[in-house]
Design brief:
Blueprint: H1 40-60, E1 69-81, E2 86-97, E3 100-111, E4 118-123, H2 157-162, E5 166-169, H3 206-221, E6 227-237, H4 239-250, E7 256-260, H5 278-284, H6 307-312, E8 319-324, H7 332-348, E9 366-367, E10 370-375, H8 383-397
Helix pairs in contact: 3-4
The structure holds beta-D-galactopyranuronic acid (GTR).
Length: about 400
């Protein structure tokens, strides 16, 4: 299946710390012309834009800037969902441009006990809206015939509602069906792209399309009277963790960014080459990153950036990166180190990063302005993960 990361573990993947080739990370706080960055102003005016454009052109790709027509249609607004504790809303979002139309179906649960606008976790789903809960009134997503409630273990809806948060989700296929043969069905078709061949070398592909989707859902959330759009916690798991980091970097409206086991091309340092590598990911998923990223296949040393610099683009907003001990394919240590190094930028703002380069014991979160945990278990989203994200959101938003 698409989600069976382990099945793709190449025989040659390295997990041995002693076999990591020696590497030097690009300096986060030095500009392209060699000037040290010592102030927030230098970071915001020079270094941050420099890094953002390298990630755009070399890693994730640009999205066309065209303004797309958008309309919202409320298909459902029910105040007695989740045993009366939540309001369920389903909104059909229609995008049209150049005579092409694409639709995304947004599912939301909002806490009835929160009388003001609610903070909301925005988290796309892998298998269709109907799979996040056994609620029989969820409208199935267009690209999925998976059974209701199939993924419910990853979506503790009651826990989220009880904690005073809303939940917003869309099946990620609505923006790009996750396959190298399905460009024509994706939102990239709005811009005239029908296949890989149409995309420029620095053009965005699936990850950029999903990140664009996260921003378009944010546009909607800004219009919803029950939502506090200044308190949106953007969360993604795995390939969608890569996406949440990229969306958080490109769209400053997201208040908090959470990366759950995002691995290669997400939170993990590429130069360590532990588990999944740049070469491997670009071969198995040629439709994810921009084509320019392929230049670095087996040449991680030539990357002008590394992933600690992506994490730093979230600053000064709260950032949570999480790993799982048995998810070695995502390189927990590489995720931890990049998170620790990103702290340099938080420090410029007078805020606390992880404040250590020693990995914490399993199931022991570090929770400053930057947070990290490595829980026991496999590649997944669990209650432990959610409980900590809720605690982190409480810490910074309440
Ligand atoms: C794997 C892939 C990872 C990660 C994962 C997932 O196949 O190698 O980069 O994205 O899928 O999304 O579950």
């Amino acid at each position: 299946s698409l989600l069976a990361g382990h099945a793709q573990e190449a025989d040659e993947a390295n997990y041995d710390e002693s076999k990591i080739p020696p590497y030097t990370l690009p300096a986060l706080l030095k500009t392209a012309n060699g000037r040290e960055v010592t102030t927030v102003q230098q970071w915001e005016q020079t270094r941050r834009p420099e890094l953002l454009s390298i990630f755009t052109e070399q890693v994730y790709g640009k999205m066309p800037a065209d303004k797309v027509d958008v309309s919202y249609k409320k298909l459902d607004d029910n105040h007695s969902a989740v045993n009366g504790s939540a309001t369920r809303k389903q909104i059909e979002i229609t995008f049209s441009h150049n005579g092409v139309e694409r639709k995304a179906l947004l599912l939301m649960y909002l806490p009835n006990h929160v009388k003001t606008k609610a903070p909301v976790f925005l988290h796309f789903n892998f298998q269709g809206n109907q799979t996040i809960s056994s609620d029989p009134d969820i409208i199935p997503s267009q690209h999925s015939d998976r059974p209701r409630g199939n993924q419910a273990s990853r979506w503790p809806v009651e826990k989220i509602i009880d904690a005073g948060y809303g939940l917003a989700t869309v099946h990620y296929f609505d923006f790009f069906p996750d396959s190298k043969d399905r460009y024509a069905e994706s939102i990239l078709a709005l811009f005239g792209y029908q296949s890989e061949g149409d995309i420029p070398a620095d053009g965005g592909q699936a990850i950029a399309a999903w990140a664009w989707g996260y921003s378009r859902v944010m546009d909607y959330l800004e219009t919803d009277w029950q939502v506090d759009a200044s308190k949106i916690i953007l969360m993604g798991h795995s390939r969608l963790g890569k996406t949440s980091l990229w969306a958080g970097a490109t769209d400053p409206r997201f208040a908090i960014v959470v990366s759950n086991e995002s691995g290669c091309g997400g939170a993990a340092l590429s130069r360590r080459q532990v588990g999944e590598t740049v070469n491997r990911i670009n071969h198995v998923f040629p439709h994810w990153f921009c084509k320019n990223f392929r230049q670095y296949n087996k040449k991680e040393d030539e990357l002008p950036i590394d992933q600690h610099e992506l994490l730093a683009l979230i600053a000064p907003r709260p950032l949570y990166v999480a790993s799982a001990e048995e998810d070695r394919w995502s390189d927990p240590k590489g995720e931890f180190l990049s998170t620790a190094y990103a702290g340099e930028v938080y420090k410029l703002y007078g805020m606390k990063g992880l404040e250590t380069t020693t990995m914490p014991a399993v199931n022991t979160p570090i929770m400053n302005r930057v947070a990290y945990h490595n829980r026991t278990g496999v590649h997944d989203v669990t209650d432990f993960d959610w409980e900590n994200y809720i605690e982190f959101a409480d810490k910074w938003l309440k």
